[in-house]
Amino acid sequence: MAFLHQEGATQQPYWQQQTNYTIEATLNDQNHSLEGLLQLEYINNAPDTLHFIWFHVWSNAFKNDRTAFSDQLLENGRTDFYFSGKEDKGYLNRLDFRANGITLEQEDHPQYADIIKLYLSSPLAPGERVMLSASFYVKLPANFSRGGHTGQSYQVVQWYPKPAVYDQKGWHPMPYLDQGEFYGEFGNFDVTIHLPAAYRVAATGELQGGGRRQDILKQDSLSLPGSAYKTLRYKQDNIHDFAWFADKRFIVRYDTLQLLSGRVIEAYAYYLPASEPVWKNSIRMLKDAVRYRSALIAEYPFNVITVVEAKMGVEGGMEYPTIASISTGLDETLLEEVIGHEAGHNWFYGILGSNERLHPWMDEGMNTYYDNRYREWITEN
Question: To which H or E segment does residue 363 belong?
Answer without folding.
Answer: none
